[in-house]
Amino acid sequence: MSGKEVIQGGVAADVTAFVERLRNLPAERTDAGGRLVFALDATASREPTWDMASEVQGEMFLEAGRVGGLQVQLVYYRGFGECKASAWVRDGRDLVRLMQGVRCIAGKTQIARVLRHAANEARRAPTPALVFVGDCVEENVDELGRLAGELGLLGTRAFLFHEGRDARAAQAFQHVAELTRGACFPFTSGSAAQLRALLGGVAAYAAGGRTALTALARRSGGVVQLLESQLR
User: Fold this and answer.
1) How many alpha carbons fall within 13 Å on the CB side of residue 7?
2) How many domains in the chain?
3) Which of 81, 86, 80, 76 is nearest to 42 (CA)?
C-alpha cells in the first residue's frame, strides 16, 4: 500500500465527516475521572527504547496528582497475536513493575486491537486519553482511520509518539491523531526530557481536562505549550 492510499479510497470523505462530528463534541470532559490507556508496541524492533518509556512514564502520575490523580492501564502487543491489558493502577511504581515484567518479542503491529480496546474502555467509563508509542504500521490504514474516528466520538484523544523515520507510520499516526483531536510527536532516544514533559501534559489533560493542560502549558512552556496548541 502506498503512502497516498492513506488519504484515498474514500478515507478523505470519512475524515471530513468524522472531523465535522468531532467539532460538535464538548471542548473537554468534565466527568473525565482521570483514566489513561498507556499502550506500547512491544515487538522486537522496540526493545532499545522500552526501558526509556518505563523510566519517563512516572511524570504522568506526578502531574495528574496535582489535579486529582490518575488511573493508568498498560496495554501492549508483541509476538504472534499477543495483545494484553493490565488492571488499572493508580501508582507509578505499580506501572513500572508491570512494564519491567514485559520482554519484547518479534511480531507484527496490532494497533487496531489497541484502538478497539481503548474504545471499549471508553464505553465502560470516560477515558480522556490514549497514549501510544510505536515505530511502524503493518495494518490496513483505512481500518485504523475508522477505528480512530469511533474512538474520537467517544471522547478519547489519542497521543501518539512515533519512533524512527517510517514515512507510512508517520502519516498513519498523524491520521489517527487528527481523527481523535489528539496529537502526534516524534520519539527518539535523545528525547527523554521532552517525552517526560509531554506525558505530564497528557496526564494533566486526562485528570483535569483542557483547563489543567492550559495551566500546565503556561507554567512549563516548551513542548507542553506545543501540545496544548495542537489541541486547540
Assistant:
1) 10
2) 1
3) 76
Torsions phi, psi of 137, nearest 5?
Answer: -130, 120
- What residue type is 86 in one-letter code? S
Set of cell numbers at residue 232: 486547540
| φ/ψ of residue 84, rounded to 5 | -125, 150
Residue 182 neighbours by CB distance under 10 Å: 27
Is residue 55 in a domain?
yes
In a domain, 8, yes or no: no
Residue type, 159: F
Cβ-contact 29, 194 below 8 angstroms: no
pLDDT digits 0-9 by tens, 62-103: 888 887 889 999 999 999 999 999 999 998 888 888 888 888
Least confident of 136-140, 145-149, 187-191: 187-191
User: Is it the case that residue 116 has pLDDT exceeding 90?
Assistant: yes
Q: How far apart are CA 4 and CA 17, in angstroms?
A: 19
Q: Which residues share a beta bridge with 72?
A: 36, 89
Smallest Cα–Cα separation from 41: which of 131, 140, 154, 141? 131
DSSP 8-state code for residue 66:
T
Contact assessment for residue 147 and residue 119, using Cβ atoms and an 8 Å cutoff: yes
Task: For residue 175, give the CATH number of its domain.
Answer: 3.40.50.410
Mean pLDDT (whole number) for 205-209: 93
